C-alpha cells in the first residue's frame, strides 16, 4: 500500500510561477523515496505541499489513504527534517527532542521514555544534557532526526538534511540515515540535488526537472539506463 500518494498535483504560485506540473508519485509503506533534481526544479515545493506548508493548486494528496489537501500540517502525522536543523539553542538535547511532544501535552514520563529510546537508537544518550552548541555537526543532525523519530509519524519528509555538513560527515550520515530508516521502517520522502546521495540512499529515485517528473526507478535501473 502507498503511504504517500501524490495524484496529478500542480502548484502555481501567486506570481504565476508553475513550480510543479501534474505530478503523480506514490511512496510505498516503509519505502525510502528520493526526489532528486537540479536547483529550482520544484523539489522543496513538492515536499512542502506534502507537509501542508504550501497549498496545492490542483490535484490530490493522500497520506495513509486519507485525503489531506485541506488538513493543516499538524493533522498530517508526518515529521520534517530540514537542512538547517532549527534546533533550539537554549534547550538541552533532551528538551529539543521532546519539545513537540510536550507541546502536544504528552505526559512527562512518556516524553522522557520516548526521548531516551530515540537517544539510544541515535547514540545520543551521553549527550542528552548538552545544548546544541556543544555538539558536533553530525550529533546535531542526529538530534534533528531524534525530534522526528519521537513523534512516531506515518512518514518522514527530509529536505536536503545533510547539505550543511562537510563532505566526509555527509557520507557518514548518509549511511546512518539509510540504516535508521530501514530499522524503523518509516516511509520517507527525501529531497536532494545530489545524484550520488540519491543513488546510494534510495529504494527508488524520482527525477524531477522543470517541475515535471521525468522518471521513477530503482538506483539499479537508473544505472542501466544509457
Ligand atoms: P528546488 O527545491 O528544486 O530548488 P523550489 O521548489 O524551491 O525548487 O522552486 C521551484 C520553482 O518555484 C523555482 O522556479 C522557484 O523560483 C519558484 N518558487 C519557489 N517558491 C516560490 C514562491 N514562494 N513564489 C514564487 N515562486 C516560487
Ligand atoms: P531552496 O532552493 O533550498 O528551496 P530557495 O533559496 O530557493 O531555497 O528558497 C528559499 C525561500 O524563498 C523559500 O521559502 C521559497 O518559497 C522562497 N522563494 C524561492 N524562490 C522564490 C521566488 N521566485 N519568489 C518568491 N519566493 C521565492
Automatic annotation (TrEMBL):
Entry keyword set: ATP-binding, Cell membrane, Membrane, Nucleotide-binding, Translocase, Transport
Biological processes per GO annotation: carbohydrate transport
GO molecular function, one term: ATP binding
ABC transporter domain boundaries: 4-226
GO cellular component: ATP-binding cassette (ABC) transporter complex, substrate-binding subunit-containing
Name of the protein: ABC transporter related protein
First-to-last residue of the parent protein present: 1 to 226 of 368
Amino acid at each position: 500500500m502507498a503511504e504517500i500518494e501524490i495524484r496529478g498535483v500542480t502548484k502555481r504560485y501567486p506570481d504565476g510561477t508553475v513550480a510543479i506540473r501534474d505530478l503523480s508519485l506514490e511512496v510505498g509503506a516503509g519505502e525510502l523515496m528520493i526526489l532528486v533534481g537540479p536547483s529550482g526544479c520544484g523539489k522543496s515545493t513538492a515536499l512542502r505541499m506534502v507537509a501542508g506548508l504550501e497549498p496545492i493548486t490542483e490535484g490530490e494528496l493522500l497520506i495513509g489513504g486519507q485525503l489531506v489537501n485541506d488538513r493543516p500540517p499538524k493533522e498530517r502525522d508526518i515529521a520534517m527534517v530540514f537542512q538547517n536543523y532549527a534546533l533550539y539553542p537554549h534547550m538541552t538535547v533532551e528538551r529539543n527532542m521532546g519539545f513537540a511532544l510536550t507541546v502536544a501535552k504528552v505526559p512527562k514520563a512518556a516524553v522522557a521514555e520516548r526521548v531516551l529510546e530515540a537517544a539510544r537508537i541515535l547514540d545520543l544518550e551521553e549527550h542528552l544534557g548538552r545544548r546544541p552548541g556543544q555538539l558536533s555537526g553530525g550529533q546535531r543532525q542526529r538530534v534533528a532526526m531524534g525530534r522526528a523519530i519521537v513523534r512516531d509519524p506515518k512518514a518522514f519528509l527530509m529536505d536536503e538534511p545533510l547539505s550543511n555538513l562537510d563532505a566526509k560527515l555527509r557520507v557518514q550520515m548518509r549511511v546512518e540515515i539509510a540504516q535508521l530508516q530501514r530499522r524503523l521502517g518509516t516511509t520517507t520522502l527525501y529531497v536532494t540535488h545530489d545524484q550520488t546521495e540519491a543513488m546510494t540512499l534510495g529504494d527508488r529515485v524520482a527525477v524531477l526537472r522543470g517541475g515535471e517528473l521525468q522518471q521513477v526507478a530503482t538506483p539499479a535501473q537508473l544505472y542501466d539506463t544509457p
